[in-house]
Amino acid sequence: MFDKVLETQEWGDVKKSIYAKTALDVENALAATKRNLEDFKALISPAAVPYLDQMVELSSTLTKRRFGNTMQMYIPLYLSNECNNICTYCGFSMNNPIQRKTLSDEEILKEVAIIKAMKFDHVLIVTGESSGKVGVDYIKNAIEIVKPHFASISIEVQPLEEDEYKELINTGLNSVYVYQETYRTETYKVHHPKGRKSNFNYRVQTPDRLGAAKVHRMGLGVLLGLEDWRVDSFFCAAHLSYLERKYWQTKYSISFPRLRPCSGVDGLKSNLSDKELAQLICAYRIFNEEVELSLSTREEESFRNNCMNLGITSISAGSKTSPGGYANGKEELEQFEISDDRAPDDFVKELKLRGYEPVWKDWDSMLA
Amino acid sequence: MELLQIADHSFTSRLFTGTGKFSSSQLMEEALLASGSELVTVALKRVDLGNKEDEILNHLNHKQFKLLPNTSGVRTAKEAIFAAQLAREALETNWLKLEIHPDPKYLMPDPIETLKAAEELVKMGFVVMPYIGADPVVCRRLEDIGVAVVMPLGSPIGSNSGLQTKAMLEIIIDQSNVPVVVDAGIGMPSHAAEAMEMGADAVLVNTAIAVSNDPVNMGIAFEKSVEAGRMAFEAKSGSVSKSAVASSPMTEFLNN
């Protein structure tokens, strides 16, 4: 599993090699027809900063060729903020004295009705990690409830066992998003001191379990801001390459969550600028022409308006990050603050102005 | 030019088209109408079969177009057969573009699952048009099963890199008893013309039209190149004899 691969690479060595990349390395990476992980290092390195314009041009061309003039639309559906983990950056953290809420079947359906009225057909179910209150049975039940209303169902919940994933896939689950947060074990321990999530290896092995369960799509990512984003992103790209080679029947997606302020935690800010985020997104696209690149409403309006040129192919809009948030938005229950709070309609208008077609439906439960 | 006959249907245009990647459904409709295409494939996963007002289907509601649902997204024969039955019921057509690519990265067709599914679907009365690698033996096996056409790929789907499989396509065209439609990888009108000159019966084009800066004109350009290529193929077959070869100095001794 990937933890064994990870053991062969020292964080410090990787960091050194990224920061040692030169302009020539960047030019060679841009000129190559197929790019490897060394090229990816060059593209995310400080040496690539002066090449950002070229990177955007190339990324935009590659993205259009593969994905066309389209943008996949999805929306998160938060079902519970119950959580037994302590994560230093998260509003749902167990030690955060907020009101806890887990939606009932009826409350879920209320949210579904509002989301459907906004035209969404791809939904991402999100919960905190509480095996007692929102365990596999709760998630399975939720999938069964929402299934008749959506073409594609994804989850972003606690890591599960292979058999549990299989069961959920048979119930109608299409995609699973599980972010490593950081690939540096020492830093991981600092930010995840308590709860099942504190087990680094169990988390880093999760994509292997998902691949073995033959999930249709899985999403990877790091929480940008916890560590040196360049080194963490390298490990994430290495993880992607490893998984693509091993679990070839799964489609992959990369997300770019930047640290956002949330209630109960002071001074949360990502160490990654907009320019650097743009560089990172382009680097992924140039490195891997087929991977889905996804952006949430954590980012601001102007960045989101232009993200398709960087290589983004999947985006959420109108998101609420609290359980029950669509029916009666209570901000104090939020996982993190939203930056772009435009209604989906307004975002889509902007998309169309820029010559992009929103894709609401790109899956069908009859296909699996 | 000869009409192209597939099952009970004859086509004037030998340009088949896809419906993905356009910047709007409106532009898709205009470009496909302008291209003269008469057979248009649409991914089942993109349309809402239960919705009579589905946006994509509404824009394809023209006499010019015959709809060809495709199974893009399925990974196995079983999934393909299930999807095909739903499509037949909802879209009232027994035509099917059979696409089984379990590899979501390069979208390479799975020959084993495709063969299995094709066999079942032919028995069930479908007009099966399988997307397949440019493998002459697999194409013959599909033909033996009773598919309506074979659709070998020119190069990886969406790559726009032309007829990279040319040597294999030549064998497939040479051997085939069913129409050969070159599908995938055709990025320029000249690629389409090349396929038609080689004797392909039709081509299927999507990305090259949808992603161009001017899909309407690109559609027209493809229409013309397909026509030109076919015309050249027909003209050549009428006037150039394969046995007309210049005399060789190596046979001179035979004449003395």
Give a description of the structure.
The complex is a heterodimer of chains A (368) and B (256). With 368 residues, chain A is an alpha/beta fold. Chain A is built from 15 helices and nine strands. An eight-stranded parallel beta barrel of chain A has the order 1-2-3-4-5-6-7-8, surrounded by six helices. In chain A, strand 5, helix 12 and strand 6 form a beta-alpha-beta unit. The longest helix of chain A has 18 residues, at 229-246. Chain B has 256 residues and is of the alpha/beta class. Helices cover 42% and strands 15% of the residues of chain B. In chain B, helix 3 (77-91) packs across helix 4 (111-123). The longest helix of chain B has 25 residues, at 215-239. The mean pLDDT of chain B is 92.
Question: Which key phrases capture this entry?
Answer:
heterodimer; A: 368 residues; alpha/beta; TIM Barrel; globular; B: 256 residues; 5-stranded parallel β-sheet; 10 helices; 10 strands
The separation of the N and C termini of chain A measures: 27 Å
Which overall shape of chain A is indicated by the principal axes computed on the Cα atoms? globular
Low-confidence blocks of residues of chain A: none
Radius of gyration of chain A, in Å, reads 19 Å
Oligomeric nature of the chains: heterodimer
Radius of gyration of chain B: 19 Å
Task: Sketch the major β-sheet of chain B.
Answer: 5 strands, parallel
SS strand fraction of chain A? 5-15%
How many helices of chain B? The count is: 10
Helix content of chain B: 40-55%
What is the H-and-E element order of chain A? HHHHHEHEHEHEHHHEHEHEHEHE
CATH topology of chain A: TIM Barrel
Structural class of chain A, please?
alpha/beta
Return residue spans of chain B where pLDDT drops below 50 for at least 5 consecutive residues.
none
What proportion of the residues of chain B form beta strands (DSSP E)? 15-25%
What structural category characterises the helix and strand content of chain B?
alpha/beta
CATH class of chain A: Alpha Beta
Cα shape of chain B: globular
The helix content of chain A, as a percent range, equals: 40-55%
The first-to-last residue Cα distance of chain B is 46 Å
